[in-house]
Specification:
Blueprint: H1 2-29, E1 36-43, H2 47-60, E2 64-71, H3 73-81, E3 87-90, H4 96-104, E4 110-124, E5 131-133, H5 134-141, E6 151-154, H6 160-169, E7 179-181, H7 185-194, E8 198-203, H8 205-208, H9 215-218, E9 221-223, E10 225-227, E11 234-235, H10 239-243, E12 250-257, H11 264-273, H12 275-284, E13 287-288, H13 300-308
Parallel strand pairs: 1-2, 1-3, 5-10, 6-7, 6-8
Antiparallel strand pairs: 3-12, 4-8, 4-9, 4-12, 4-13, 10-11
InterPro entries: PBP_domain, Phosphate_ABC_transporter
Protein name: Substrate-binding domain-containing protein
Keywords: Signal
């Protein structure tokens, strides 16, 4: 009888030990705002700035892992609505229709703006004319044949740049004649650099932060200055013209979090909207939503040295 009691006690002890050990492992693997692993779907046109943010975030918080998956705008919004992904970075806010869909699912998306981006028109280096009127591009999209544009080149039929230009032109579809599309912004830049007369439409982030293998190719294209629909002057997609709201083709970037709990998505959103994240945006050539402050330190020692001299 005593033998059976000892065996029973031993079994109970082993069971309790296993449960405690499992609880300890669960605590270690539990996701927090600064710990865990998360997949983020990112608009392909702004991937460089997101890669920079992730690199610094993971370098600061060693227990955090952010997997970036670049997709077209249509793909990542569909993934979000179908709950295939919980966090996305887009070049637009959610529409009222999309917000209504989330409301029916009892999901309250957290939308955080963090940067102002721009769309750039590019041409082959041999093209000496570096000016273009936005109306000319819109007329071409509407089907006009006398615009002087040989061809318009987009990254992807479902991309945010295509949607942006369709909205500007107020058309349902982009014309198929003399319009080319690839998959990535890098492919657009390469194609334009090799073909005279083509106008490429890309996210400016790919020009301000080209990959090492793309740097020489970027040098073989012109970034065109654009005359807006209500302007008489031409402006470039520079940080200064974007900041002063002179450049016509600007858009805000957002991180949309549908996790529904205090997880890594919230931590990453807070990071890129915070001081360090906004400094990364500023350094990238885009405009931060909140301009980071600068601290000036006045040292009396320098003043005294000058007085002694």
């Amino acid at each position: 009888m005593l033998k059976y009691v000892k065996v029973s006690v031993l079994i109970v002890f082993i069971f309790l030990f296993a449960m405690c050990n499992q609880k300890s492992k669960n605590d270690l693997n539990k996701e927090t705002i600064l710990k865990g692993t998360i997949d983020i779907a990112v608009d392909e046109t702004v991937k460089p700035i997101v890669d920079d943010q992730v690199a610094v975030f993971e370098g600061t918080y060693y227990d955090a892992k952010v997997n970036v998956k670049a997709k077209s705008e249509a793909e990542l919004i569909n993934d979000l609505l179908n709950e295939k992904t919980k966090v996305v970075i887009t070049a637009r806010d959610l529409t009222e229709v999309e917000k209504d869909k989330f409301a029916k699912l009892k999901i309250n998306p957290r939308v955080t703006p963090f940067a102002v981006d721009a769309i750039a028109f590019i041409s082959n280096k041999s093209n000496k004319d570096t000016l273009i009127a936005l109306k000319t591009v819109i007329d071409f999209i509407k089907g006009a044949s006398n615009t002087g544009i040989k061809g318009l080149v987009f990254d992807n039929p479902n991309s945010s740049t295509v949607r942006y230009m369709k909205d500007l032109a107020k058309v349902k579809d982009i014309p198929t004649e003399n319009v080319f599309s690839f998959k990535t912004n890098d492919e657009v830049i390469k194609f334009v650099s090799e073909n005279d007369g083509m106008i490429g439409v890309v996210g400016v982030n790919w020009l301000s932060q080209p990959a090492p293998e793309m740097q020489d190719i970027v040098h073989n294209i012109n970034v065109l200055s654009v005359k807006g629909l209500s302007d008489n002057k031409y402006y470039s997609p520079t940080q200064n013209d974007i900041a002063e709201e002179k450049y016509a083709l600007v858009r805000e970037l957002y991180i949309i979090n549908c996790q529904g709990y205090t997880g890594l998505g919230m931590g990453f959103a807070s990071f890129i909207a915070g001081d360090i994240g906004q400094r990364i945006v500023l350094k990238s050539g885009l405009m931060p939503v909140k301009t980071p402050g600068r601290k000036l330190q006045i040292r009396n020692q320098i003043t005294n040295d000058k007085e002694n001299n």
